């Protein structure tokens, strides 16, 4: 039930954000005097509608988006009545059209920032001190016992084919502190990782403290691929694995909150980090497509690869199911920022494509005036339709691929 509630809440949040996206276009267009004839939330049959001024507002049966109709978005629009010509969008200055077309993305950015502020102020975020690797590495080798050893360096969930954790088999418990491996003393968790990986897979002896009592255990280390401890993005190599993770002392909180004013500054800092991550993600999408395709046949899914709205909604439900509201809100924040950035890419039919064409027209007109030639006028959108269809085809195919992967072989957070 908790999972279903999480799915519904996340889907509702996406629905609201899309409605706000279109409301951003509408509000700015109206503010500049452009004529807006329709604003509807949803698609399909109309459930109800009403008119205020020159705009019809309504709700449709399928809650899968929203749309706004601004008169004369392009010079080729053939449904502009003669009396509406002065209010046609394409007749307005380029800076006004830019604001109107970017307002949808701006709404996503505002929504993401507000949700981020609420998260920092009221819910809590991962303790930044835990991102300070020097501080984390200096902590004692206190461990949490995993259920298995993942035989994939990029997966965090257990599969039936993964061997059971050697530490669990040996009877170690959460909170035990490992002090030696094969007689080699270890004082920190990173020291434990390096010592285990330097050992050979197979029999080994652990010395550990449980409830203040020193004990020993004979174990069999498992061979598993792992990224280098000092370079998590480096290529994995096969090393010995124990099946434990780092347990933090109780006096180090895993999450922190900030005051209402401080949260504003922290929101700005986190926003910068998120935008940097989005830029990196967009660059790596082409290289992630083969893994998406392979995952349809049951091969391991890259947890850091692209996911669709379906996948994000499933993760939202999984977060609520496990009480991880910070993760739920983080997915919502990241999704809004990503949609906002993606929508500004200079490609038709995205808003960024319309903005790019508007500025191309403006620069071209300026250049022709400088060289004394006649203004060539507006770009003919009809001639750009093949490119637009190609973009739709590529993005549509990619969307179908990610949705299929999220249904057949979804990314999970807390294991199967």
From TrEMBL:
Cofactor or coenzyme needed: Zn(2+)
All residue ranges annotated as the Peptidase M50 domain in the record: 10-365
Protein origin, superkingdom: Bacteria
Membrane topology per record: Multi-pass membrane protein
Domain PDZ: 162-208
A UniProt-annotated Pfam family: Peptidase_M50
Keyword Zinc applies: yes
TM annotation in the entry: 99-125, 387-408
Keywords, ordered alphabetically: Hydrolase, Membrane, Metalloprotease, Protease, Transmembrane, Transmembrane helix, Zinc
Protein localization: Membrane
UniProt-listed InterPro entries: PDZ_6, PDZ_sf, Pept_M50_Zn, Peptidase_M50
PANTHER family: MEMBRANE METALLOPROTEASE ARASP2, CHLOROPLASTIC-RELATED (PTHR42837:SF2), REGULATOR OF SIGMA-E PROTEASE RSEP (PTHR42837)
Recorded family membership: Belongs to the peptidase M50B family.
Name of the protein in its database record: M50 family metallopeptidase
Species in which this protein is naturally found: Rugosimonospora acidiphila
């Amino acid at each position: 039930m908790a999972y279903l509630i999480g799915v519904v809440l996340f889907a509702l949040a996406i629905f609201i954000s899309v409605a706000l996206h279109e409301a951003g276009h509408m509000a700015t267009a109206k503010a500049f005097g452009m004529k807006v004839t329709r604003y509807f939330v949803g698609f399909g049959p109309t459930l109800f509608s009403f008119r205020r001024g020159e705009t019809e507002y309504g709700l449709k049966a399928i809650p899968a988006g929203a749309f706004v109709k601004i008169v004369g978005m392009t010079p080729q629009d053939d449904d502009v009545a003669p009396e509406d010509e002065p209010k046609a969008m394409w007749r307005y200055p380029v800076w006004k059209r830019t604001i109107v077309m970017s307002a949808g993305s701006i709404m996503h950015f505002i929504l993401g920032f507000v949700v981020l502020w609420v998260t920092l102020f009221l819910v809590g975020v991962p303790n930044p001190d835990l991102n300070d690797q020097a501080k984390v590495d200096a902590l004692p080798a206190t461990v949490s016992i995993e259920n298995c050893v993942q035989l994939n360096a990029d997966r965090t969930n257990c599969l039936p084919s993964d061997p059971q954790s050697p530490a669990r088999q040996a009877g170690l418990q959460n909170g035990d502190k490992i002090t030696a491996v094969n007689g080699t003393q270890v004082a920190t968790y990173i020291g434990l990782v390096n010592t285990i990986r330097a050992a050979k897979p197979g029999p080994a002896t652990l010395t550990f403290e449980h409830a203040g009592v020193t004990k020993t255990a004979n174990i069999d280390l498992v061979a598993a691929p792992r990224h280098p401890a000092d370079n998590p993005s480096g290529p994995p190599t096969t090393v010995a694995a124990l099946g434990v993770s780092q347990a933090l002392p109780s006096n180090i909180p895993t999450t922190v909150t900030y005051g209402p004013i401080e949260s504003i500054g922290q929101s700005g800092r986190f926003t910068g980090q998120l935008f940097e991550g989005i830029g990196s993600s967009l660059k790596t999408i082409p290289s992630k497509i083969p893994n998406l395709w392979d995952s349809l046949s049951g091969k391991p899914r890259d947890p850091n690869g692209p996911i669709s709205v379906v996948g994000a909604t499933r993760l939202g439900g999984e977060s609520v199911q496990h009480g991880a509201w910070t993760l739920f809100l983080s997915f919502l924040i990241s999704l809004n920022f990503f949609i906002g950035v993606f929508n500004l890419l200079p490609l038709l039919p995205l808003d960024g494509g319309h903005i790019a064409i508007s500025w191309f027209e403006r620069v071209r007109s300026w250049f022709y005036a400088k060289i004394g030639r006649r203004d060539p006028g507006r770009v003919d959108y009809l001639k750009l339709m093949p490119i637009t269809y190609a973009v739709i085809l590529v993005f549509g195919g990619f969307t179908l691929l990610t949705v299929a992967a999220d249904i057949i072989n979804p990314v999970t957070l807390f294991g199967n």
